[in-house]
Design brief:
Strand order of the largest sheet: 4-3-2-6-5-1-11-12-13
Radius of gyration: 17 Å
Number of strands: 13
Helix content: 25-40%
Shape: globular
Low-confidence stretches: 162-166
Distance between the termini: 20 Å
Strand content: 25-35%
Number of helices: 10
Length: 311
């Protein structure tokens, strides 16, 4: 029996000071939530889903409740979940008005013979298994409605939008359980004022997340188009396969993305050994890690705070 570890992130971007405390509180609560699953012998897969659901339910984060609006003022959500034991994965993209897209992604993995469902088909599948849709105004915060109105007046390029402090981002979790199995999950509402039908990295296997018991699990966040170009999650694990620590692998991969396509972002990663890292090249990333009775957390570069993990 090895010790279980769970790491979560609430998105890598220039998180404004007024949102920082709630962002840190949110990732800490989600880490406790996922860690409680592991503590009773639950699987890594179950733990990452539980942690991401907690983040989706928290309106401070751009996923599920708290999602951003596309150019037509609609909510389109993306999510992925991967089981490192079997490489089974499930994803949904452009799904409308679902409170917990990560659970729909898991249903795609377990209840269909497919990996990804998109748009109308994903919503029809949700309906067929009894997942109800939520009205847009219940998912979207007043803050987001105001920001959307403000940004609608002039069309900012996606890159420009991401590089301003108003870009919201993704949530994710990675875990290794006491049996040594790893898993990842990632969920997002995308970028404000994105084109209808735009899909970023989050639901794409090997980009927004990847998990394989032979190397580890990764969940990514940041500028989606950049992450897609370098297949960031898989890139991190390829460095791990070559003998790098998860921290070095994460740093090297994010540096490469910055140099090659001028994209900023963040990753959380865990190895089957329990070694973990939370790394980012944006101004901030809210993250938390539950490991052996300790809750580690931070939001600023080089910050690593800890407290006792109360269940």
């Amino acid at each position: 029996m090895m010790s279980a570890v769970l790491v979560v992130h609430g998105g890598a971007w220039a998180i404004p000071d007024e949102m920082a405390p709630a962002s840190v509180d949110g990732v800490k609560a989600a880490a406790r939530h996922g860690s409680a699953v592991l503590k009773v012998g639950g699987s890594a897969l179950h733990a990452v889903e539980a942690a991401v659901r907690a983040l989706e339910d928290n309106p401070i984060f751009n996923a599920g409740h708290g999602a951003t609006l596309n150019v037509d003022g609609e909510v389109e959500l993306d999510a992925i979940i991967v089981d490192g034991r079997t490489l089974a994965s499930g994803a949904v993209s452009c799904v409308k008005n679902i409170a917990n897209p990560v659970s729909l992604a898991r249903a795609v993995m377990e209840k269909t013979s497919h990996v990804m469902l998109t748009g109308k088909g994903a919503n029809q599948f949700a309906e067929s298994i009894g997942i109800t849709t939520i009205p847009t105004d219940k998912l979207v915060t007043e803050y987001e409605k105001k920001e959307w109105e403000k940004h609608k007046k002039y069309i900012a390029g996606v890159m420009e939008e991401f590089n301003t402090k108003w870009a919201h981002d993704t949530v994710g979790a990675v875990a290794v359980d006491c049996a040594g199995n790893v898993a990842c999950a990632t969920s997002t509402g995308g970028i404000r004022n994105k084109m209808v039908g735009r899909v970023g990295d989050s639901p794409v296997i090997g980009c927004g997340g990847y998990a394989d018991n032979s190397s580890g699990a990764v969940s990514c966040t940041g500028h989606g188009e950049s992450i897609l170009k370098v297949t960031l999650a898989r890139l991190v694990l390829s460095h791990v396969e070559q003998g790098k620590s998860v921290a070095d692998a994460s740093q090297l991969s994010l540096q490469y993305m910055g140099n090659r396509v001028q994209g900023a972002g963040g990753t959380i990663a865990v190895a089957p050994s329990g070694q973990w890292a939370a790394t980012f090249t944006t101004e901030r990333m809210a993250w938390a890690a539950a490991e052996g009775g300790v809750l580690w957390f931070g939001i600023n570069p080089e910050e690593k705070l800890k407290e006792k993990l109360s269940q």
